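Entry:
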Amino acid sequence: MNITYKSIITLITVSFLFGMVAFGADNEYRFTHNDHDTLIIGEITEIDGKIVVIRASDYIVSSKDLNVSAKKKQLRPETVKVEGLLEYANIKNAETGDYVIVSLNKSGNKYVVANGAFPVDSLDYKTLKVTAYSEATSAMLSDFVNSGGTYTEFAFSSGTVTRQYDGVDTVIYQNEQPSEKTNTSITDQVQQTESNNTKDSQGYQYYIIYGAGGVLVLLAIVSIVRKNKR
């Protein structure tokens, strides 16, 4: 049989790349839709190697859940020990006393970053400013946090960020020198063809896609192995 491990590697590579495209697109969507065990605003009180201790001052719980039928707990720890926090570009130069907002999942007696970690300029969620990797993303995340998790849907077009809430579009950021015209929303980044009436089901659709891809790869491997044994 001419089918070899090269075929297996090709299948795995295609499946991996497909998943990476979707993951990169919806990171902020997960941040703003409770896809973590906790989203804390706090102060860094200790840095010990790869472990950063944060004293929580407040918590943001989004008004929208990524997985409606399997909601995450949204824990409220007083302090957290975060492993690997300083590996994130936005936080790598953080020092004791700095303020941060971090999306976290619990792992044993520690926490790990789930969907992002960003510096903030205060501990007051109503007025703080988030520093992300672009001014547009900073504006979007700040608006989400300042609303206490109420505002979750945003659109990006020609250097402008628009909040979409209760049927009203409100511009929250506009670049003085807009780039080439584009028109994508944070929801579109998760799945371009999703209708507005089914936004909350997007997370499950991606899990189904990933799962189906994994099953297909596994079945292909089993089939190849069986044929090679004949």
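Strands lie at 38-48, 51-59, 79-83, 99-107, 110-119, 154-157, 160-165, 168-174, 183-185.
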